[in-house]
Amino acid sequence: MKMIKTLSRLIISSPKKCYYDSLTGLIYDLSFILPNLIVCSGPVTNSYFNSFFRYELNDLIKILSFNFGNQWHLFNFKGEDPGYLDSEVFGKVSHYPFPDHYPPTLKILKLAVLEIHKVIKSGRRCYFTLFEW
Q: Nearest CA to 8 among 50, 36, 59?
């Protein structure tokens, strides 16, 4: 079944090239914008149907943990319920909800950028993963 889900995701996401992680053997829809800034589509949890065309949260966590250890943080810009508990990502998430079908407010963007900048300025090594549904 995993092969069928992987194939359906690759077809849906084409012509984009998906990221293949050699450490985990997983294929995921993510892009490295900077060496420590990653953008990906919003993951799903507990949704059998959605898992055929969306990538699963557990797979994203596995990729981040294998590649970056404990030095990662998620930024969720989804306006609706994220579909998972913060504890499922070890509390390593910040929520900056964009209004559905509208551009984000400058306030939301400013707060998110300030949080990322604060970590970068502190010298702490961290990989940021940004996503929105």
A: 50
29 contacts 40 by C-beta, under 8 angstroms: yes
CA-to-CA separations, 105 to 37, 40, 108, 111, in angstroms, rounded: 21, 21, 5, 10
- The pTM of this model reads 0.79
Report how far apart, in Å, the C-alpha atoms of 59 and of each of 30, 45, 76, 79, 103 are.
Answer: 12, 10, 16, 22, 29
Residues 76-96 pLDDT 10s: 988 888 888 999 999 999 999
Quickly tell me which residue has 């209004």 as its tokens: 99
Domain range for residue 124? 2-132
CATH of the domain at 108: 3.90.190.10
22's tokens: 């050699």
